[in-house]
Amino acid sequence: MRWYIVLAGLLTLAVAGVSEGEAGVDKVTHREFQAVHADGSSSFDDDGPTRVVLEGIILNSPEQWLDPTANPTPGPWQMGGQWEMYIQGEGEDHAGTALWMGQNYGNGPGYENYTNEQWRAEICRLNRDPNTGYIFNPGDRVRVTGRYLFYKGKINVNENHEIGANFDFTVELIKPAVGLPQPEVVGLSKLKDVNDDEIFDPTRLTGCEYYQSRLIRINDVNIVDPEKWGIDQTITIQDANGLTLPVRLGIGAGIAGYDCPTAQIDVIGILNQEAPGYPPNIDNTKGYRLFVLNYDGNGLVLTDRGYRRGNLPGDINTDFKLDFIDFVEMAAYWLECREGLCGCGY
Ligand SMILES: [Ca+2]
Ligand SMILES: [Ca+2]
Ligand SMILES: [Ca+2]
How far is ligand 3, taken at its centre, from the CA of residue 261, in Å? Predict the structure, then answer.
């Protein structure tokens, strides 16, 4: 429930006594930015700058994870359009950070909502390099400048729930198409102890924290609850020793388009933390899961490798032939326009 960011925001503002202006901008590594206390709460925001500059590689297409479609009145406590991009540090910077935006900040007290038009303008801006108009993709190296808040186990770049331009964050292209980071192979025994409990190390040098917001690969597992397979659902993987991990499926079209893999598989995804509980009783040492936001139907590796065989652009269902089924699938989406990518007036 994203609106709890509001509570965290009020706390941060109270503690930090926010100062405005360029003086409060520091370039930091993801590892510095994500530092935590022994209880898993942020230590960076104890006396951090107002804004940070971070660099890294984009891991995901935001619209495969959260629905960007503008909706100003989706119901109480609902955020309407949302947008979240994960950025992974490089080299010695063994950490990563999420950037988050929502439309209806006003579902918390004292904040305002974006109108549909304002929301579209915001995510149209964030999906593009401001200097060239280039549309960002996973595998691009970027520079992020923005404010931040701690939320459920990790610190996120965001707008502190404010719609004023002074609270914007920006993403700029450093180099396009450097490629996704090689996913680190991580056994479940690195994430779970012998009792299948999450391993938490506040130094962030081992356990779940070490891999938080990074692309990892878990080999030789089975999905134990294939009946739960579907868009926006959570399934569970298990290894030969009985260790398990939740896998949060995104809203990528391939998850709806293909069946759940039934054999022993490998899984590639982003390790995320969403700590359980509600303020003031959030356990920031728990709540790790693997994000798999799309699937290409290959049957052996649960992931979206970002390319397709066949090279037939009209082959919508990727069965390597063009026929009426492709036409039907295309017709079903006729005239739809993906918020934030088209209709931007660029
Ligand atoms: Ca954490
Ligand atoms: Ca804004
Ligand atoms: Ca086809």
Answer: 21
Ligand 3 midpoint to CA 295 (Å): 17
Domain 184-302, CATH:
2.40.50.140
Ligand nearest to the CA of 119: 2
Contact of 49 with 25, CB cutoff 8 Å? yes
Q: How far is CA 133 from CA 9, 91, 172, 183, 337, in A?
A: 32, 28, 10, 29, 18
Residue 118 C-alpha to ligand 3 middle, in angstroms?
A: 38
> What average pLDDT does range 149-176 have in this prediction?
97
Q: Residues with Cβ within 5 Å of ion ligand 3?
A: 315, 317, 319, 326
Q: Which residues surround ligand 2, an ion (CB under 5 A)?
A: 168
Radius of gyration, CA atoms only, the chain: 20
* Predicted confidence band of residue 22 (pLDDT cuts 50, 70, 90): low
126 is written with which tokens? 């964030």
pTM of the model: 0.90
Ligand number, closest to the Cα atom of 273: 1
Per-residue pLDDT at 17 exceeds 50: no
- From ligand 2's centre to the CA of 167, what distance in Å? 6
Enumerate the CATH 2.40.50.140 domain ranges in the chain, comma separated.
4-175, 184-302
CATH for the 4-175 domain, from 1.20.950.20, 2.60.40.1120, 2.40.50.140, 1.10.357.10? 2.40.50.140
Nearest residue to 292 (alpha-carbon basis) of 262, 257, 248, 235? 248
Q: Is the pLDDT of residue 114 over 80?
A: yes
Relative to the alpha carbon of 313, which ligand is closest?
A: 3
CA-CA distance, 63 to 123, in Å (whole number)?
A: 10
Compute, in angstroms, the gap from residue 319 CA to the centroid of ligand 1: 41
- The pLDDT value recorded for residue 11 is 40
> For the chain, what's the residue count?
346
Residue-wise pLDDT for 66-102, tens only, equals 999 998 776 777 899 999 999 999 999 999 999 999 9
